[in-house]
């Protein structure tokens, strides 16, 4: 019984394949890593919830802060909201909220309103939400049409970015923030950034 | 009388045709739209289960198409638009992977496989032909020199 | 009660399957004829038990038994009857039960139609099929049980996905699975041959009809899926190189190589090792496809809900079955003797060349499908590989394949002269070249890709016709094999013409249309006459009435719909299609557009040559059937010759 080299090739190739498939089982094909990590946070100027202020990421140079993309219509955001509130009460890291497309495309009648009325409505809805469920945000800006979201590579809500003192994005998390994530990923990173 | 009726019918039929207007293209600018369609076929809808930006009906796809339209109007080339999206969403957004070291195996693999296959095939056929020649020679020899039992 | 009966029957079936898997094979090792004889009755028993289990699930669906979790997820009391039945395979668990029903069915068929085979071969073939069956049944029973109950019983089910509520669902998966599962028979024969050490022309002759039938079903299943996507999804696409589609194409490509290789092995005793490897590969790709679709490793519109634990089970099963067979192969293949003599130019070598090309194409599609997974597994990031890649890589591989096909049918066995072949084909070549270019110029601006596509189609098509005409003139019976082969090749040619035509000349118009407005794609005009609301059994729809005129003359009314199913928020588009000999006219209704004048978004497509695609596939299926039903397979041959 001899095993000629060439007849073993299919078997070897097969086991290499199985190896890849086995590793693949542990991966999530829906998760898209962000190419913006270690790049400058894209600039923007958006109106804030509270008044006629305009906020830009440059305003927070010198600070380590979080940008949290959310909306009142987003179910997962409600899950993470208490976690965020607790986080900001415990640690004094500023969290800026980005209200993403608060008035949705399917709300056709509302979409026909003039821009300032839409903005006002969006402010009201968001403020109501925050009043009821707590406000973890030091301030919140409104991205009405999702363009700023595209600049940041937002593809789903909620998403959270960690931005350092130089305005560089250091970390992005897609999906609700969990206590586990805070302990294992966010806090170590934030501590590390604060040291520099 | 027939003429009058004929004229009335004629007018009626033609006035119908006059009222039939050509439907407008869905988009305001068909030239931009045509370019968008071609480009969007090569881009992936990020939130869908494997659909192109051209065919997806999701919200994000609408937003991204709007973005691409704007970029087309600004005069950007296809490559610049693709780069714009890759900078924000990564290589995942391209259905046609860029040719770079990490995709060399992908792009050149099939061709390499073809070359290896053709080379193996050639070697195998040569081997078979040699076997055939040997067989024919052996046959020819045995006809010339029939083996007679000696012992 | 019925679900429990079904569950119990399945458990019994797995016990019988275990007997089938163990005893006959063992009986071939220790030459125990009694144990070998267990094979046939065990296979039949297994089928009866699985069929009963399936019937129980189907009955529960038809009785709206929503206490069964699977039924609650995939059915609804308002769902029309035929779809209530088809919903049995609308989800992961039920579709697996269909898989095992068909597998045990094939095994039962082999048990019945194998009188001419020696007992030890039957024992081995059925034994291998038993092993596979047991694996799947264990998979179902441990991770994917369709009979699980749910408490409390919901008042009504969640309904079948509206996309699946279509006649396509009723036939596409069963046909496709018949193909996938049918490849297991060729696989079982190959393993049986390796185990017995008897790799010869007789094995090829036994294997062939089973493999051709499986290939025919697979061709039909893939064609149905493509056609279904075309008319159901609303934008006239028919192939997306989606991972699940690729998962069905891969065994088809290897299966095509296999049926041709089996033919050479039977006739000339050549390529034995290659044929065995192809048989193992075809079924392995079926199993791989099962893994890809159900494990969640790849993103696809067709994928079932994924669950990593299921993925692990299938992967282990895959590793054991394929790893085991490839190990057996590497052990036995070196002992295989070379078959009949063959020259560098011969019918054998042409066929081998195409066999190799098909395998290279398989490799390319497999590479493209798995590349994102490989890159991700190596932590090198996430990328996508889509239609632009596959089209660019697959089409060039098909060109030499189609070209070589014709000399392959003309060349003599064993040794052929290039000069003779050239002389036989030169008129055909000129005819194909001239007519292809003429057609391309007539239909529109000449491009080399269109001309090449038409040339290859005409090259293969005219050649098949030539063969058929020449043969009919000669005396003597013509067998099913002959008609089958040329019919299938002709069908392939028609398919190639169809694809070339539609890709070169299709027109799409995306418009906002009001009542009495017209869309013109010369010589056709599409006029929206009116809109009305329509009620369906489980949906409400807006229906447009579109009048089509050709050259000013009315020809047809199309009624595309936009449906809202009660059970889901997803609006669904039901396109309306007018099919002619040379073209499809396709209208798809979109959403109403707010504005002073009532308008709707609508897509109108002119799709020339599309009917040729479906006709070509049907011809290939007919060809496969003709070949499989050739007289000599139906005669009872008592052949123990090696």
Outline the fold blueprint.
The complex is a heterotrimer of chains A (196), B (151) and C (642).
Chain A: H1 5-25, E1 46-47, E2 54-55, E3 65-70, H2 75-90, E4 95-100, H3 108-111, H4 115-133, E5 139-143, H5 147-151, E6 159-163, E7 169-174, H6 179-195
Chain B: H1 2-19, E1 24-25, H2 30-40, H3 59-73, H4 78-89, H5 104-144
Chain C: H1 2-29, H2 33-37, H3 39-62, H4 69-74, H5 81-86, H6 92-112, H7 119-143, H8 167-196, H9 201-232, H10 243-268, H11 272-295, H12 308-332, H13 347-377, H14 387-410, H15 418-443, H16 448-473, H17 480-505, E1 507-514, E2 518-521, E3 524-535, E4 539-550, E5 553-558, E6 561-565, E7 571-574, E8 576-579, E9 583-593, E10 599-608, H18 610-628, H19 631-634
Helix pairs in contact in C: 1-3, 1-7, 3-6, 6-7, 6-8, 7-8, 7-12, 8-9, 8-11, 9-10, 9-18, 10-11, 10-13, 11-12, 13-14, 14-16, 15-16, 16-17, 17-18
Description:
- The complex is a heterotrimer of chains A (196), B (151) and C (642).
- The mean pLDDT of chain A is 90.
- Chain A contains six helices and seven strands, in the order αβββαβααβαββα.
- Helices cover 42% and strands 16% of the residues of chain A.
- Chain A has one domain (35-195): Glutaredoxin, CATH 3.40.30.10.
- Chain B is mostly helical.
- Chain B has two domains: 24-98, Cytochrome C biogenesis protein (Helicase, Ruva Protein, domain 3), CATH 1.10.8; 102-139.
- The longest helix of chain B has 41 residues, at 104-144.
- Chain B is elongated, with a radius of gyration of 34 Å.
- The N and C termini of chain B lie far apart (124 Å).
- Chain C is an alpha+beta fold and 642 residues long.
- Among the domains of chain C are: 2-232 and 251-256 and 270-331, no CATH class; 507-610, no CATH class.
- The longest helix of chain C has 32 residues, at 201-232.
- The N and C termini of chain C lie far apart (53 Å).
- The model of chain C is unreliable at 636-642 (pLDDT under 50).
- The chains are: A alpha/beta (196), B mainly alpha (151), C alpha+beta (642).
- At the B-C interface, β1 and α5 of B face α13, α14, β1 and β2 of C.
- β1 of chain B pairs antiparallel with β1 (507-514) of chain C, so a sheet runs across the interface.
């Amino acid at each position: 019984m001899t095993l000629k080299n060439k007849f073993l090739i299919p078997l070897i190739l097969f086991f290499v394949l199985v190896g890849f498939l086995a590793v693949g089982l542990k991966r999530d094909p829906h998760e898209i890593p962000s190419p913006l990590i270690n790049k400058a946070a894209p600039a923007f100027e958006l109106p804030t919830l509270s008044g006629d202020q305009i906020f830009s990421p440059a305003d927070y140079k010198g600070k380590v802060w979080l940008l949290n993309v959310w909306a009142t219509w987003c179910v997962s955001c409600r899950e993470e909201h208490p976690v965020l509130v607790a986080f900001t009460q415990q640690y004094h890291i500023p969290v800026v909220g980005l209200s993403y497309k608060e008035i949705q495309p399917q709300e056709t009648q509302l979409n026909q309103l003039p821009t300032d009325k839409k903005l006002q409505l969006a402010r009201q809805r968001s403020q109501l939400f925050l009043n009821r469920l707590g406000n973890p945000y030091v301030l919140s800006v409104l991205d009405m049409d999702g363009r700023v979201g595209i600049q940041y590579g937002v593809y789903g809500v909620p998403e959270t970015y960690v931005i350092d003192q130089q305005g560089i994005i250091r970390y992005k998390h897609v999906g609700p923030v969990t206590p586990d994530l805070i302990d294992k990923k966010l806090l170590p990173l934030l501590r590390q950034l604060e040291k520099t | 009388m027939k003429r009058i009726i004929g004229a009335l019918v004629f007018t009626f039929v033609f006035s119908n045709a006059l009222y039939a207007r050509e439907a407008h293209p869905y988009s305001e600018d068909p030239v931009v739209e045509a370019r968008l369609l071609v480009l969007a076929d090569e881009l992936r809808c990020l939130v869908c289960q494997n659909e192109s930006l051209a065919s997806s009906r999701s919200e994000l796809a609408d937003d991204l198409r709007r973005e691409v339209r704007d970029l087309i109007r600004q005069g950007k080339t296809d490559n610049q638009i693709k780069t714009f999206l890759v900078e924000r969403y990564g290589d995942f957004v391209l259905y046609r992977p860029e040719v770079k070291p990490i995709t060399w195996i992908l792009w050149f693999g099939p061709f390499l496989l073809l070359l290896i296959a053709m080379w193996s095939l050639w070697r195998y056929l040569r081997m078979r032909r040699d076997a055939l020649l040997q067989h024919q020679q052996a046959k020819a020899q045995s006809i010339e020199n029939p083996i007679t039992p000696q012992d | 009660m019925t679900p429990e009966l079904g569950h119990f029957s399945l458990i019994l079936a797995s016990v019988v399957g275990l007997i089938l898997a163990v005893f006959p094979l063992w009986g071939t090792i220790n030459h125990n004829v009694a144990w070998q004889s267990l094979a046939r009755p065990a296979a039949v028993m297994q089928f009866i038990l699985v069929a009963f289990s399936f019937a129980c699930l189907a009955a529960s669906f038809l009785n709206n038994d929503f206490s069964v979790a699977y039924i609650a997820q995939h059915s609804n009391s308002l769902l029309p009857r035929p779809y209530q039945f088809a919903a049995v395979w609308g989800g992961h668990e039920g579709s697996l039960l269909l898989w095992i029903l068909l597998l045990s069915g094939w095994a039962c068929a082999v048990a019945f139609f194998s009188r001419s085979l020696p007992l030890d071969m039957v024992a081995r073939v059925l034994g291998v099929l038993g092993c596979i069956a047991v694996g799947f049944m264990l998979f179902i029973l441990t991770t994917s049980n369709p009979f699980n109950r749910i408490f409390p019983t919901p008042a009504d089910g969640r309904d079948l996905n509206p996309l699946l509520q279509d006649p396509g669902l009723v036939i596409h998966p069963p046909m496709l699975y018949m193909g996938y599962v049918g490849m297991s028979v060729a696989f079982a024969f190959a393993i049986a041959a390796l185990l017995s050490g008897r790799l010869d022309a007789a094995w090829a002759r036994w294997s062939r009809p089973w493999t051709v039938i499986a290939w025919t079903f697979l061709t039909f299943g893939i064609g149905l899926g493509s056609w279904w996507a075309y008319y159901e999804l609303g934008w006239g696409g028919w192939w997306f190189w989606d991972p699940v589609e690729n998962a069905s194409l891969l065994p088809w490509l290897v299966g095509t190589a296999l049926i041709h290789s089996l033919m050479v092995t039977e006739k000339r005793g050549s390529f034995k090792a290659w044929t065995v490897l192809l048989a193992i590969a075809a079924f392995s790709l079926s199993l791989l496809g099962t893994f890809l679709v159900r494990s969640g490793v790849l993103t696809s519109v067709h994928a079932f809900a994924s669950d990593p634990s299921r993925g692990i089970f299938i992967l282990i099963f895959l590793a054991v079955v394929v790893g085991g067979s490839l190990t057996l192969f590497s052990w036995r293949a070196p002992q295989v003797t070379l078959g009949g003599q063959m020259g560098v130019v011969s019918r054998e070598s042409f066929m081998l060349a195409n066999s190799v090309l098909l395998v290279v194409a398989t490799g390319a599609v497999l590479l493209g499908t798995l590349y994102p997974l490989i890159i991700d597994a190596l932590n090198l990031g996430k990328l996508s590989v889509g239609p632009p890649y596959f089209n660019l890589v697959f089409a060039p591989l098909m060109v030499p394949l189609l070209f070589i096909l014709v000399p392959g049918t003309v060349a003599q066995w064993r040794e052929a002269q290039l000069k003779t072949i050239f002389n036989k084909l030169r008129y055909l070549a000129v005819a194909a070249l001239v007519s292809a270019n003429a057609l391309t110029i007539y239909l529109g601006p000449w491009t080399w890709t269109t001309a090449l596509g038409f040339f290859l189609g005409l090259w293969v098509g005219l050649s098949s016709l030539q063969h058929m005409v020449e043969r009919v003139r000669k005396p003597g019976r013509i067998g099913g094999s002959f008609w089958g082969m040329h019919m299938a090749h002709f069908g392939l040619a028609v398919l190639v013409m169809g694809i070339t035509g539609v890709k070169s000349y299709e027109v799409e118009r995306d418009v906002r249309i009001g009542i009495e407005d017209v869309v013109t794609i010369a010589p056709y005009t599409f006029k929206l006459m009116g809109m009305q609301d329509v009620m369906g059994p489980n949906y409400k729809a807006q229906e447009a009435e579109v009048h089509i005129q050709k050259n000013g003359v009315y020809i047809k009314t199309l009624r595309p719909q936009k449906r809202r199913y009660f059970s889901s928020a997803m609006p669904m588009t039901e396109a309306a299609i007018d099919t002619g000999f040379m073209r499809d006219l396709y209208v798809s209704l979109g959403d109403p557009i707010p504005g002073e004048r009532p308008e709707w978004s609508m897509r109108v497509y002119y799709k020339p040559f599309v009917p040729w695609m479906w006709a070509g596939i049907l011809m290939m299926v007919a060809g496969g059937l003709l070949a499989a039903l050739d007289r000599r397979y139906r005669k009872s041959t008592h052949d123990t010759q090696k």
